[in-house]
Amino acid sequence: RAVVYTGTSPHGQGHVTSWAMIASSETGIDIADIDVVWGDTDLVPSGGGTMGSRSLQQGGAAVQKVSIELVDEARKLAAQLLEANESDIVLDKSTGAFHVAGTPSISKSWSDVAKAADAKSGMTHDGIFVANSATFPFGAHIAIVEVDTETGQVKHRRHIACDDAGKVVNPLILDGQIHGGIAQGTAQALLEEFRYDSDGNPLTTNFADYTFISAVELPSIEVVHMETPTFVNPLGAKGIGESGTIGSTPAVQSAVIDALLHLGVRHIDMPTTPERVWSAIANASA
Fold first, then answer.
1. Domains along the chain with CATH numbers
2. What is the C-alpha separation between 249 and 182, in angstroms, rounded?
3. What angle do CA 188, 194, 198 make, to 5 degrees?
4. E strand spans, 7-130
5. pLDDT, tens digit, for every residue of 18-76?
6. Which terminus of the chain has a smaller tally of CB atoms within 10 A, N or C?
7. What are the strands of the beta sheet with 221-226, ordered from one edge?
8. Residues 131, 132, 135, 136: is their CA dihedral positive or negative?
9. Under 8 Å between Cβ of 23 and 2
10. What does each C-alpha distance from 159 to 59, 222, 223, 243, 268 come to in angstroms?
11. Whole-model pTM?
């Protein structure tokens, strides 16, 4: 088996899957035979949390870089095993085997090469990737809401998101990041608020008092894919982890205000709870 040690520390972002995919695409090793180790300071010398939408463009790029370098080292060993010139050795990524160009019937597997490097520990290679600038992902979000002017209740009816995260490694994880971000951003615009009494004591101390969003309050999110690879890292990837929260909150908030413009409402503090919406309508008509 192959093991990828990474300094990134995921908590639901799908690093294990994506890192294994990247390593597999460069080495030809089946993704099912690749383990990803993170968060163990005894095994991983440096790293940090996942933040700033940077994990793929930093940690993922490092996995790609080291995988390519590992293939180069393995090619040298395969050349010795096959008694050929290194320049004549190719890696068939569909089978994960090294062979002389034009002679695929005689090959050496990654297992053969690893044993040749070290019968006990196999092959190891490490490296670091540091981007020299930010990648500047961008996007646009459109929200459609329905406001009950009698009760102040807001319903999020439709949401369209177009986010450019550069080169996409895993479309399913990309969509999941966007969906989760939109849910969080919508909750900020409509529901979530930490409240205090006049003496500064917290009032929203549990989930019975602190309202959070669920699938019931959300529409089916429409995602429009767009890819503009960046030159900052070899993967061409930008960040996607925060795009949903950045785009959805102002989109939903603005949609609420737009729905009430004809009533004279120009602003409502977030979250736009039924109480605040009803009060804004009442004050505008007073």
1. 2-117 (3.30.365.10), 138-285 (3.30.365.10)
2. 8
3. 140
4. 8-9, 34-38, 48-49, 89-92, 97-100, 103-109
5. 999 999 999 999 999 999 999 888 888 777 777 777 889 889 999 999 999 999 999 99
6. C
7. 138-147, 154-164, 221-226
8. positive
9. yes
10. 31, 6, 9, 14, 20
11. 0.85
